[in-house]
Amino acid sequence: HAHKGRDKKPGMYLRASTCQQWRIEALCGLVLFMKFTAASHSETNVDTSGTTQLWNGKLNGEKLYKDAITDQLSALPITRLQSLVEYYKNDDNKISEKEPEKNREAVIWMMLFRSLFKVLQKSLIDQVLSFILTKQKDYTCYKEFGCFSPENRMALDIGGPVSPEEAGVRFYLYSRRSPLGTLVTATNWSNVLHRSFVKNRKALKIVIHGFKESSNTKQVVNLTSTLLQHTRSNVIVVDWQHAARFPYYATAAANSPLVGAELSVLLQSMYNKSSLWPKTVHLIGFSLGAHAAGFCGRHFENATKQKIGRITGLDPAGLLFENPNASLSSADAEYVDVIHTNGGNMNELEFGRKDPMGHVDFYPNGGSYQLGCTAALSDISCSHNRAWWYFIEALQSTCSFKSIPCENGWNYYPTCLMNTGVKPVQMGS
Q1: Which of these is catalytic: 115, 209, 215, 315?
Q2: Within 13 A of 214's CA, how many CA atoms are on the CB side?
Q3: 138 catalytic residue (yes or no)
Q4: Is 384 marked active-site?
Q5: Higher model confidence: residue 142 or residue 130?
Q6: Which domains does the chain have, with CATH numbers?
Q7: Which among 30, 155, 363, 407 is least surrounded, fewest beta carbons within 10 Å?
Q8: What is the pLDDT at residue 398?
């Protein structure tokens, strides 16, 4: 069930290993992480999210006053170490609060590494944000797609999109008759479809990927085949990989309104010439793609006075979309449902926007961290990507993700469970 289970907080956890093994693991991990950050920063008054009182030294370039921190940790009484272990312990209770009494040195090494990791993580994020959050192109208008500015909810505060030629957005049509995909445009779509779309009145599902993805990304391919297999619909996949290239996140975010506008123009052509039913259109967007879906919805409505039937936001991106004027919202379609899997603060490597933005917002496992995901750098987007897989699973499985409303949030979930008068809602269907 979508709301069962407990949050999986990131962190380092004690194992059944010797102190020497802990030293090796901690130091190797620290060295690798320092290489990753290039150790080129200076920082004072370090915030370690609950362990600030353990720090007297400063971070000067590459030199960390590790010995002083270790001395302070070693001097702490058992009761204080117990409370720190409680702070860092994971949710499957592999660590006991009594662990300091059994293996004090291992606990100290774990705490030291975790504290250093938190500092370096914050510094790395600050460096990355200073690199990517640069002013983008000026707000502008393109003849076929209209104007892009915050005033018409078609641009971000950081700037406007690149030109359509630079963006290189492509649309690929998939059907059970044509499962390999065919390139479609606003001018050739009728020939490609052979009018089958009009005659069959099939629903139209549209998949929009996110940052550094493409139409060939595993999740996109999997969702496309699942939609064809389990729904009576045609599928269009929006490929905007050239406008969403890594590491240019701010550029990709600023380009998302153009992606939405280009998709809207394609849908308008279908609507004007073939009586496309807007209510049968379902946009499914992941991360930045969720906001692109929102831009498409508002652009389409401005042009036709008709709303798109449904938009599903799969963990909509948080960074640069804090302003609800640009973010996906319930105004962008007749029905907007959102699945939050990694919502929160970018400084905690939470990539999604956690605020409610749809008619219904789902928060599986609290909406920030998903079970089975870790804090490893190689696993950094695990919780974020889980939104793809939850939606795919909801289509494939006969066991539905039943969810219940809980107005006061995840911490009150046990209380909400006892409210038997509330009808469960199914996530993802």
Answers
A1: 315
A2: 8
A3: no
A4: yes
A5: 142
A6: 19-132 (no CATH), 140-427 (3.40.50.1820)
A7: 407
A8: 84
